[in-house]
Amino acid sequence: MQNLGPDSSFPHDDPTVQKATAADAKRWVDSVLAGHELGRDAANTLAHQLGDEEIRRILCDGAYAIKRATTGHRVTVSRNLFIPLTNLCRNRCTYCTFAKMPDAEDAHTYSLDEVEETIRGGVTTGCIEALMCLGDKPEIAYGSYREMLASRGLSSTTDLLVEACRRTVETGMLPHTNAGILSKEEMARLRPWNASMGLMLETTSRRLREKGMPHFHAPDKEPSIRIKMHEEAGELKIPFTTGMLLGIGENDAERVDTLLTIRDLALRYHHLQEAIIQPFHPKSDTKMHGVASIADDLFVGWVALARLIIPAEVHLQAPPNLGSGMLPKLLGAGVDDWGGVSPVTIDFINPEAPWPALLELREATEAAGFELFERGPVYPDWILERPDFFDPQVRALLPKYANDEGYAQRKNNQSDEEAA
């Protein structure tokens, strides 16, 4: 089993943190609903008591009230496809099965023709968003990969990514890029060909980069580097996705700090369109195969606490394939978006967890008292209210993919039943 250190129990029991009563929790939640920020001390106190069913219920009620006040009965999903442009990566996170070595049988870097072929498949199934997900800067680590790029007339993975996004737009879909760490200059190059971009903050825990910890061999998981990219994306006015990964060894105080950092970034730049709260899923062929996932009820509690901390303008997402048995509870904890669900491709990050069919997801959402609406890679309120957050080329394309309310406009009227 991976050595996660002495401070990684879930939840982390710190005797120095004050206990809160249900009345305390209700008072703090009411303060948030009245427009005040939840302070660090209160957030830490609540985090340490998420195992308390009554306190968790109070947090969920408050988070649900925020969701209803901002998006009402509507829950969104993006019908997308997932293109792992390259699964080579210079990082070695001890919980990841996505990253491959160059000589691995399943190592692969897409050609531009493969990208175009995949995009055509997405177009025929009514997809709008093309998720470009890839490893961090493999050219730094692997000479054979540099040679491959050179043989294609490219000098970097970013060169390949820009061309892949260009082909995607020309073939009929809108890219959302999640390429790991990108410089400000690289993001500026991608902006004319991307509706949105993203980087999971994951955690602000510097401790997880220490020897024996999950990010020790992952230089691009240095929190300051990831925060800097969030800041530069804000300076460039890029609609941005962030998020927290729960259960890789961080303690409760570190989780709270991650959520407060996301709040600070959102308030400074107003560019965070969504925050994903994602539970760690152990993979059998990794060093962390024996580390248990966070308990379902605690996960729901963290989702609710995230909704109370993060500004209401930031949509809250939980992946439906990583908590399919909890969909009603997640909606009751403030979730208003299910993220990308593909009728074409698998989740290459969590291949053991298949996407639900769109029809199945719609039925589950409706059974919980909500209505499911499809969106593209950017949310309707962004399309309608924030034109300055898009490159002029992308802004001109948006009406082709969105109706008058900003929701997805299908080009071939395909039904959920056909995509199931």
Shape by Cα distribution: globular
CATH topology: TIM Barrel
Corresponding CATH architecture = Alpha-Beta Barrel
Cα separation of the termini: 38 Å
Rg calculated over all Cα atoms? 21 Å
Order of helices and strands: HHHEHEHHHEHEHEHEHEHEHEHHH
Average pLDDT metric? 91
Major beta sheet summary = 9 strands, parallel
CATH C-level class is Alpha Beta
**pLDDT < 50 runs, ≥5 residues:** 1-13, 415-420
Could you state the CATH homologous superfamily?
Aldolase class I
The portion of residues forming beta strands comes to 5-15%
Number of strands: 9
Structural class: alpha/beta
Helix % is: 40-55%
Number of domains: 1
Q: So how many helices?
A: 16
What does this structure look like?
The chain has a single domain, classed as TIM Barrel (Alpha-Beta Barrel). The chain has 16 helices and nine strands. It is of the alpha/beta class and 420 residues long. Mean pLDDT is 91; it is low at 1-13 and 415-420. Strand 3, helix 8 and strand 4 (196-198) form a beta-alpha-beta unit. Strands 1, 2, 3, 4, 5, 6, 7, 8 and 9 form a nine-stranded parallel β-sheet that branches.
Summarize, please.
The protein has 420 residues and is of the alpha/beta class. It contains 16 helices and nine strands.
Spell out the key features of this protein.
single chain; alpha/beta; TIM Barrel; nine-stranded parallel sheet; 40% helix; globular; disordered C terminus
How are the elements arranged and paired?
Elements (H helix, E strand, L loop, with lengths): L21 H12 L6 H8 L5 H19 L2 E11 L27 H13 L4 E5 L4 H4 L1 H9 L5 H15 L2 E5 L5 H7 L5 E3 L24 H13 L4 E7 L5 H18 L2 E8 L16 H14 L5 E3 L9 H6 L4 E5 L16 H10 L3 E5 L4 H6 L6 H10 L14 H4 L1
Parallel strand pairs: 1-2, 1-8, 1-9, 2-3, 3-4, 4-5, 5-6, 6-7
Helix pairs in contact: 1-3, 2-10, 3-11, 4-7, 9-10
